[in-house]
Amino acid sequence: QVQLAESGGGLVQAGGTLRLSCAASGRTCATPVRAWFRQAPGKERELVGNINWRLGNTYYEDPIKGRFTMSRDIGKNTVYLQLNTLKPEDTAVYSCAAGSGGTSPGQYEYWGQGTQVTVSS
User: Fold this and answer.
1) Cβ neighbours of 81 (radius 10 Å)
2) Cα 5 from Cα 102, distance rounded (Å)
3) Which of the four pLDDT bands, split at 50, 70 and 90, describes residue 73?
4) Which of 92, 120, 93, 115 is nearest to 20 (CA)?
5) 69, 76, 81, 115: which has the fewest Cβ within 10 Å?
């Protein structure tokens, strides 16, 4: 089992920044990829990006490319999502996930509880 706990969400004005954290515990060695997804009201959950835990390689979806950055701290077993130049359309619940990788939610076995990001115009 893997436990994931997100933190760092909140309310921010358009153009602002936030940093989300996702701390992992448990059998994380069995989950080589960590990802961030988001789900806006009335919309399906979508991938923001993912990171290969061992190599540090990252992948980002087009809507956030150039604005959001994923990083990891191996010693703390934590993944970060830096959100810059936030837009109102970035408003969503952001969740971290761990699994074997891919772009769809079904490819990730473990999920955090999610953290709300709200961007005001």
Assistant:
1) 27
2) 21
3) very high
4) 115
5) 76
Phi first, then psi, for residue 105 (nearest 5°) are -55, -35
Show the tokens assigned to 7. Answer: 């933190």
Amino acid at 43: K
Is residue 36 within 8 Å of residue 22, measured between CB atoms? yes
CA distance 57 to 73: 13
H-assigned helices in the chain: none
DSSP 43: S
User: Helix, strand, or coil here: 51?
Assistant: strand
pLDDT band at 27 (very low <50, low <70, confident <90, very high): confident
Helix (H, G, I), strand (E, B) or coil at 55: coil
